[in-house]
From TrEMBL:
Transmembrane segments: none annotated. This is Adenine phosphoribosyltransferase. Residues 27-148 form the Phosphoribosyltransferase domain. GO terms for cellular component: cytoplasm. Keywords: Cytoplasm, Glycosyltransferase, Purine salvage, Transferase. Catalyzes a salvage reaction resulting in the formation of AMP, that is energically less costly than de novo synthesis. One of its GO terms (biological process) is adenine salvage. It comes from Pelagihabitans pacificus. It is found in: Cytoplasm.
Length: 170
């Protein structure tokens, strides 16, 4: 299946000069939605995973599905101020601004085998911040797994040393 047929380009969103990859056509198609989940899962290649860590908000579409299929837990990484218990936080830059992400301190135990999942790897600021949070909590990152990688933004350079897999490249 050519998943790219279900990814829509929106120019100048959310700010001038940004070419936004809109995955909602993929999500709303019953076949493409499910086939993409299977393809993301295939990239994990039967590795043992204790927890899938997904970033707010678009990492929440497939992250819990991957967790369920891998018989792993799901850990939400949320934007500042949304998580109710004690957190660790990391501020980072992304393609169109600056933000802070948080994880609950008790969400990852030392030695947990972690799959990080998000929809888009752009400049890599978000994913690098999440890798730092997971490692501060003692987690071991098995793979960083994305639906889309924007190769020209070179996000992979911020994820040196990690196993980075992306289903679609632009
Ligand atoms: O590689 P980067 O340049 O850091 O950009 C990638 C991030 O940007 C988007 O999230 P966004 O912060 O727009 O939030 P959203 O998922 O809530 O829309 C996307 O879902 C990634 O998390
Ligand atoms: N160009 C882009 N399209 C969709 N999500 C993004 N997150 C960061 N850059 C993005």
């Amino acid at each position: 299946m050519d998943f790219k047929n279900y990814i829509r380009d929106i120019d100048n969103f959310p700010s001038p000069g940004v070419g936004f990859k809109d995955i909602t056509p993929l999500l709303q198609d019953k076949t493409a939605f499910q086939e993409a989940a299977k393809a993301l899962l295939k990239m994990v290649d039967n590795q043992k995973i204790d927890k899938v860590v997904g970033m707010e908000s678009r990492g929440f579409f497939y992250g819990p599905i991957l967790a369920s299929e891998l018989k792993a837990g799901f850990v939400p990484v949320r934007k500042l101020g949304k998580l109710p218990a004690e957190t660790v936080a990391q501020t980072y830059k992304l393609e169109y601004g600056t933000d802070t992400l948080e994880m609950h301190k008790d969400s990852v135990q030392k030695g947990d085998r972690i799959l990080i999942h998000d929809d888009v790897l752009a400049t890599g600021g978000t994913a690098a911040a999440v890798c730092q949070l997971v490692e501060r909590l003692g987690g071991s990152i098995v793979q960083c797994n994305f639906l889309i990688e924007l190769d020209f933004l070179k996000g992979i350079e911020k994820l040196n040393g990690y196993d980075v897999r992306s289903l679609l490249h632009y």
